[in-house]
Each structure stands twice: as structure tokens, then as C-alpha cells.
Amino acid sequence: MAVHPVLESVTARIIERSRPSRAAYLAHLQAARTKGPQRGALACTNLAHGFAAFPANDKLLLKEVKKPSVAIVSAYNDMLSAHQPFETFPAIIKDAVRQVGAVAQFAGGTPAMCDGVTQGQPGMELSLFSRDAIAMSVAIALSHNMFDSALFLGVCDKIVPGLLIGALHFGHLPAVFVPAGPMTTGISNKEKAAIRQRYAKGEATREELLEGEAKAYHGAGTCTFYGTANSNQMLMEVMGLHLPGAAFITPGTPLRDALTAAAAQRAALITDQGDEYLPVGHVVDEKSIVNAIVALLATGGSTNHTLHLPAIAKAAGIIIDWNDFDELSDVVPLLARVYPNGDADVNHFHAAGGTGFIIRELLDAGLLHDDVLTVLGKGLRKHTVEPFLADNGGVVWKDTPAVSGDDNVVRPHTNPFSKDGGMVLVKGNLGRAIMKVSAVKEEHRVVEAPAIVFDSQEAFMAAYKAKQLDKDFVAVVRFQGPRANGMPELHALTPALANLQDAGRKVALVTDGRMSGASGKVPAAIHVSPEILASGPLGLVRDGDVIRVDATNGVLEALVASDVWHARALATADLTPNTIGMGRELFSMFRHNVSEAETGATTFPLPSPIPTTVPLHDGNPVGNTMPGSDEDTSLKKE
């Protein structure tokens, strides 16, 4: 199947834009390789420290420096339902790796916080920056240089992007991502949303709300709606970093454990000591990043990935921007409807065809690059299958069914839910912002109304509860960007805005904050960049200014006379309360050094060039040729 011309042109543009930084990244990757196991570079006292507490047989393998050692990096904690299943994974992994003659060590843990717990709370202001803290934790775990590949155990919002950013800074090592799977289905997402809206109106008690929430979030595993956590899993599949179909198998099942064991053995087999060396820095390239954007759009995934994918790409020396998302969105059809873009949850999505179905349909439409590396080797089409439990307790893969199991949930590319991906770049004199409209009805996609300006979500909710918002208006919630207060999600505003819209009011949200993977039926221009603390024009808006939010034509505009607009001074706010308490003072370095939202809201720089010939640890120089060239030796054995 020929690649779609827009996919081809966007990819070519990214490759050209990224050429210097990608070359610098690949030079770093090649320089980090060693002959033989990585731990062979360690002095004897270093190595002795690295295996001192290990069982005798494993210690012997580590001491011989002949067999690969696999790192386990886990975001386990038992408060978060999505990560609680990881408690049992290390034992499964270690046993599975021993069966193929290798060793696995628990290299380190990373933080794991839940936006569901911190939503609307001060702790949410640490959420986005936790991604970079997780990447730094990965670096600490792998800095011992004991390991030849790594398994990354994580699921949720900032955790998987943070793990991948960290992995890419050790891009010479293979990486396999190991999910825990979703919890089983509770009450329907439609019921859950209805209880929340009733509570926002004062029609349901707190006890009723808590009972409904507990029925929705009721067991071990990921939340079952298609928010950032489950969007992460879709992206890991399409980027070839999971074993096929691993994303949505529920925890505590034999198939889940078998997939974990299979992932561990795969990680041991693709090291530089074998014949299938697949370093993560080569698996993640310009084409795989474009594939991730396409899959996000085709499934109505989380807007948070308009931040995370640029940050992930940057870690690999690749530069993408919101124009790339916007241009691809015009040609990528919407093939899935999963809450909040439909009524189904991810368990239903998986049963109807799941990730393998989506990947196959997009490949058949010429909307994914097949000629990429994955943890299985060359070719994304290897991932158009789904896993089953074999008679021997292992995993077998079968072709994904040719027909959707439920065309209300997943559809072929010849009969999509809509012809575009439903993620729009809007721009104008207020800056640049992202809108997710896959769940927004056509009649709500253009709103032109007076602004009501708020400097916090608490101020908005106070006005709503005081019955001051029963009118047409655009809520401008400002000072919510990464420099101001860490860019929290403002999803707590959704029920109130939805109630006003249901009552017939024309409402929209404009903010430099986030709305998360749960962005739903209310039009919201989010991630407005630049933010006010970077001299962004959102600080020029005043109450009563007519704001046009137009997702159809890509417009975000304050309809204010030019001379009046430019005569205004940027608004200011006392942000002191956002800098202390709940550990926020510890994150001041992130707020002071963070990039704009469109470049990933990250504190990490692009890779910088190094000399074209760099000595390895053993003193043998290795060249620095771009992968794919006739002279490329970067994946060949010495």
C-alpha cells in the first residue's frame, strides 16, 4: 500500500527539520555502545557491588560477564489501581529471563502519581513536571551501567512518557514496555458522567457521587475510559514498544502473566549480544513518531499527547509541532469511539478489534509507515495480531478479525466515524491552542461570546455555584501554564460547563492549562501558547471582550480593535500560593526552566553535537553513520 501523500510530506518535513539534532542523538547513541555486556566496562569493585545481594546462580552469570542482564524499571505503587498489579511482575520477569539464559535485576523505581486523585487539588500542579522527574529517575536506575536492555513497567498519564523519555536517553539499550492492563468494566461511563453532572447541579449528594465513582473505579487496573493512560497504551503499541495486543488484557489473568513473561524474554533476546539488536533509539525514529500522531488522531486520543509526543520526540532528537498534528488530522479518519468520544470503554474496544484492528486499517489506508523497527524487528504489520493463551501457558498470536466486532466502537477505514481525526490547531491574536472536537457536536464547534476572565479554576467554580454563569460566555482561565503553576488539568470544570451547554447556553473554555484525556463535549481551546509568563497575549483579555473560538476554521481570536488591543498591558497575578505547599517549592526549577507547551512543556534540551568519532569504553572508536545508509554499521556486530 502506497503511503498517503500527506503522511509522506509531513514525515519528510520532520526529517529535514530534525536532521542536525537527530544526527547528534544518533552519535550519542553509538558512542554509548560497548563490546560485550555493558557491565564489562565496570571495574571489579563496581561489579561486585552490582551483584552482591543476588542469588548464587544469577550472581555467577553476572560475574562471568557473558550473558545479558535486563533492567526492570517499575512505577509500582499499591495506591494507584493501574500500577498495583506491577507488584508481582518482577518475579515473573526474573524467572522468564532465566529460562533464556539471562539475568534480570530490579534497577529502580520511579514516581507514579494519579491525576484522578489530584484532580482539582494542589498536588495536580506537580503532575506535568512528574514526567520529567520520572525520566530523571530512569536515568538514575540505568546509570549503574549494569544492563543490556530494559523493561519499563508503567501505564498512566505522565508515567509512560516519562519512562520513554528516560529510555531514549539510554537509546543504545533495547526497551520493551510492559503494561498492567485495564480494570474490568464497572458502571457505564454514561452513568458516571450523569452522576457528576447531577452533583454539579446540587441534585445528587456527596454520598451518591462517591458510590457512583467507586462503582466506576472498583478494582486493580487502569481506568477504563480512553484518557491519557489508555492513549499511552495505544501509542506504545503503534510505536512497536509493546508486544502486539498487550495493552488491554486485564491484570490478574493467565494471559496477562504470559505476556509479561514473553516481554521479558524478548528484552533478553534483542540485546547487543544477540543477532537481533534493536536499540530503542532506532525503534523510535521520525516515522514511528508520525505513526504515533496518526494513531492518536484515529482513536480520538488524549490531548495531553500534544505535549508528550513533542517531548518524547525531542528526547530522540526529533522536532515536531502542532502544525504536524493539524495537517495529519485533516486526512486521518476517526476509527474508534471510546468514552469520552463514545459510550464504550477500552474493554469493549479490545473485544471489538482493539489495537491490532486499528493498526491494520491504518496500514491498509496508507496512513501508517510499515517500514519501521519494532521490538519484533522490521515491519509494523507484525503488530496486526492479537494474543491468546497457548496450551502450554505461553502466548500465541492470531490475525486480528477482518470485521469489527462492533461498528459502534471500531470501524474500518472505508467507513469511519468521521473523515478527520478531530484534533484542531486554532490560532489568532490569542496565540496557538489545541482543540479536541471528536466528541463536540457540530453546532457547538463555533462559539462567539463575551469573555469572563478567571485566574483559577476555584474562581470559576465559585462563580458557577453562585449562579453567575447562566449566560452565553467564553471562560478564559489564565495563569494555568507550565511556568505559572505547572499546567494542571482543569477537568473539574467539565461537569459545570456541560450543564450550561445542556441548558442551551453557548459556552467555551480558553485556557493555557490542560483538560486531559477526558476532554469531552464542551469546546475547549487548551494549552494556549505562549502563556502569559512568556508574554503571551492571553494576558490582554478583559471581561466583556468578544472571543471567537472556531474549531471549523481554526480561529482563536479576541474581537478587539487593534489599537485598543496593543495599548493594553499584560495582566498580572499573585502566584505565590502556587509555589509553596504540597511540595510545590521543590519543583520551582521546573517552572523556571520549562519550554512552551508546543515544544513539550519540558525542561530537557535537544541533543547537541559531539565529535564524529568518539572512543568507546574500551578505547575502540566507532563511526557515526546515519542508520539506513549504505555505510550504516550502527546495528551490526563488531
From TrEMBL:
- What's noted on cofactor binding? Binds 1 [4Fe-4S] cluster.
Q: Which SUPFAM superfamilies match?
A: IlvD/EDD N-terminal domain-like, LeuD/IlvD-like
The answer to whether UniProt assigns keyword Oxidoreductase to this entry is: no
Q: Which reactions does this protein catalyse?
A: 6-phospho-D-gluconate = 2-dehydro-3-deoxy-6-phospho-D-gluconate + H2O
Q: Where is this region: Disordered?
A: 616-638
**Mind listing the GO biological process terms from this record?**
D-gluconate metabolic process; Entner-Doudoroff pathway through 6-phosphogluconate
Q: What is this protein called?
A: Phosphogluconate dehydratase
